[in-house]
Amino acid sequence: MLAIVKIAGQQFKVQKDQTLYVPHVDGNAGDKVEFAEVLLVSADGNLSVGSTVKATVKAEIVGQVQGDKVIAFKMKRRKGFRKKHGHRTHYTKIKVTDIA
After folding, report:
1. Residue 30 host element (H or E)
2. pLDDT band per the 50, 70, 90 thresholds, residue 83
3. Which of 9, 29, 81, 90 has the smallest count of CB within 10 Å of its CB?
4. Contact 13, 39 (CB under 8 A)
5. Cβ partners under 8 Å of residue 82, min gap 6
6. Angstrom distance (rounded) from CA 7 to CA 39
7. Phi first, then psi: what are they for 50, rounded to 5°?
């Protein structure tokens, strides 16, 4: 069974027992989360899209992690202007437990 679900404004293709990193979702490790905005479901060759989809994706939060450090460095030559800014994006690692 395959589903495309919208999580925090981004679309993800998920299957049962799959682990993936999604944008930060509130919760602690072990919490159960449910995503109701399912865009497509494919089960046994049957495809349902759009308003005909009546499914939810249930997942478990494995942990909260941070992405790689991204550095934005701006400089104007011969002017003495230098600006360095960096950040690490927060992600949530989830494991899909059920597509129902």
Report:
1. none
2. very high
3. 9
4. no
5. 73, 74, 75
6. 11
7. 75, -135
Per-residue pLDDT, 69: 98
* Token digits of residue 45: 């060759």
Check if the beta carbon of residue 37 is closer than 8 Å to that of residue 73: no
Q: At a CB cut-off of 8 Å and minimum separation 6, what does 25 contact?
A: 7, 8, 33, 61, 92, 94
Q: Report angle CA 44, 46, 51 to the nearest 5 degrees.
A: 135
pLDDT tens per residue, range 41-63? 998 889 999 888 999 999 999 99
- pLDDT tens digits, one per residue of 15-38: 999 999 999 999 999 999 999 999
Name 77's Cβ contacts closer than 8 Å, sequence gap at least 6.
none
Encoding tokens for residue 58?
A: 């249930």
Residue type, 79: K
pTM of this structure: 0.84
Is there a contact between 18 and 51 (Cβ–Cβ < 8 Å)? no
